[in-house]
Design brief:
elongated, 144 residues, binds zinc ion
Length: 144
């Protein structure tokens, strides 16, 4: 495997690891500290390793992703149930909005965590300094 392939697969592994840590609500750098200080409020920095996390610019992207994911779950389910079983209206009017709300609330924080992890791993926005520091070789003191 060439150096370029090694670098690419290593970058992919780092991005995947940071996104999985964010998905679990953990700091993308150390995986231990809490990423969120409230439901959707990202901590300013990691309490465990001190990594600055306030640089994220997730904005509305997690909400868009949740809409896409929930839509791809609820709409096929709704169509399958409505065409095959034709439940009473009151069941449809309580089941589908409730399922949509529960899934949306359940997915919003993990998806936002994954987006913050992605931004951190890619060095986007204010995370570029952090990425540069992670990539820099360790300076050995010279004794000449
Ligand atoms: Zn940390």
């Amino acid at each position: 495997m060439s150096d370029l392939q090694n670098t690419a697969s290593s970058d992919f592994a780092n991005v995947r690891q940071a996104m999985l840590r964010g998905l679990r609500g953990r700091c993308p750098h150390c995986g231990k500290g809490r990423l969120f200080r409230a439901f959707l409020k990202v901590s300013d920095h990691c309490a465990d390793c001190g990594e600055e996390l306030h640089h994220h610019r997730a904005d509305d992207f997690p909400a868009y992703l949740v809409i896409v994911i929930v839509g791809h779950i609820v709409v096929p389910l709704l169509l399958a149930v409505e065409t095959n079983y034709t439940p009473p209206y009151w069941v449809s009017m309580t089941l589908w909005p409730s399922l949509t709300a529960v899934l949306s609330l359940a997915l919003l924080q993990p998806v936002k965590g994954a987006v913050v992890g992605l931004q951190w791993a890619m060095g986007m926005h204010g995370f570029e300094t952090s990425k540069r520091n992670r990539a820099a070789p360790v300076q050995q003191p010279s004794f000449t």
